[in-house]
Every structure is written in structure tokens, then in C-alpha cells.
Amino acid sequence: MWLLNLVFTMPEKPKGAPSVLFPIINILALNTIILILSNAIMLRSKKEQTEAELANLKIKHLEAEQQQLIQQMQPHFLFNSLSTLKSLIKNDTELAEEYLVKLSDFLRFTVSAHENTTVMLADELQFTSDYIDLQKIRFSGSFFCQMSIPEKCKTKYKIPVYALQTLVENAIKHNAFTEARPLNLGISFQDGFLIVSNNKIPKPTSVIGNGVGLKNLKKRYSSMSNDAVKIDETPQTFTVKIKLLK
Q1: By CB count within 10 A, which of 180, 205, 232, 245 is most buried?
Q2: Domain 72-243, classified CATH 3.55.10.10, yes or no
Q3: If phi over 0 gives left and psi between -120 and 50 gives alpha, with beta otherwise, what is residue 19?
Q4: How many CB atoms lie within 10 A of CB 199?
Q5: Phi, psi for residue 133 in degrees, rounded to 5
Q6: How far apart are CA 10 and CA 4, in angstroms?
Q7: Separation between Cα atoms, residue 67 and residue 70, nearest integer Å
Q8: What tens digit of pLDDT does each residue of 199-221 get?
Q9: Where are the domains of the chain?
């Protein structure tokens, strides 16, 4: 209002003199531009903050899912392990003692590692080796695994906790192997990827699980890395490649 009053009450300018409205219009235009830019910067900042909060919530949600899976896995795993141990105590006390040591190491890792999202590759390899040894004893003569990882890579890379163990468990869970048709698992390293491959001895469709472990691993990788979990499946083999983290 004061601007309008100023305009209408302003004395008539001399002929040829510059208009006093020009400076006012320039100031108003400049202020408007500054306000628009300020609002744009504030909106962009709020958008980035919201996106960061959503990403953080997504990661926390995936971590919660992983914890739930671990909690579901342990009772079932313990039941199978104790049943195997009971049988070994009756038939082979020396092997039962070896099995108990491996089981103790395996459980010790699960107690401390579940608090982390990633671990050193060396730690995950050791943990998975204990798990594999337990399964070799349980499925004597029908399950074999060959692991070939360069020593320098073990302390150079990290990996999502339980990632490798999940892939080994997935192979065991989805194949109907016997001594006549054993399951052969290979774990190797190539160009920054950890490769887990096995021959396929499919179970009947009615007893195959829903693959929650592998789905969960894919979700975790999508939040940690731009590299997706790669799956290559043929009628004879099933191969999974996961990018190691630096």
C-alpha cells in the first residue's frame, strides 16, 4: 500500500529526467529473484535430507529383516546340529568332539557378528568353513566343497555378514544329494567377485523353500552397492557372483 501511495503522490518528474520507478522495480525484481533462489535451495536441501532419511530407514529395515532371518535360522540349525552330535556320540566319540569344537566356533561368531552389517572376508571365510565342516560331518560322503581364495584378498575386501554362509546354505537346502549323487560346491575369487557354484540335484517342487535367504541377500546388496547379486543358472549348475566390498 505504501508503494502505491508513493507512486500516486510522487511529484511529476521534469521532462527528460529518469523515472524513479525504475530503481524501485529493479529492487523488487532483485528481491523476488533472491526469494525464488532461496526457496529453491531450501526445497532442494529438504529433499536431500528426506532422501537420506528414507535410505537410512531402508537400511535399518533390511538389517531388522536379516536379524529376524538369523533368529529363525538358529533354532532349526541347532536342532539339526544337536541331533547330529547325539548320533556321533553314540558311534564316534572322537568325531563328536571335533564336531562340538566346530559348532562352538560357529556359534561364537554368530553371537558377535550379528551386530555388524559387514565383516572382513577372512572372518566370513573362517565362519563359513566351520559351517561347511559341520555339514560335511552331517552329510558324510555326499557333500564336498573346494575353496580357492588368494590370501591377499582375505584382508583386502569386506563382505556383508553371513553372505557367503547364506549361499552355501542355499545350495544345501535346494538340492537332494546322496552318496551316489553328491553335492559339489566351489568357492572362488575372480575380478573382485566371490563366486559360489554347485551342481544341481533338484529337490521335488513340493519341498523347495521360498528362497528367502537369497532374496534377502539381494536386498542387502542393493542398499550397499551398485553391483547386484548375479545369478547364472543352467540345467546342470547354479552359480552366484557377489561383489566384494573395499
Answers
A1: 245
A2: no
A3: beta
A4: 16
A5: -60, -40
A6: 10
A7: 5
A8: 999 887 645 555 667 887 887 78
A9: 72-243
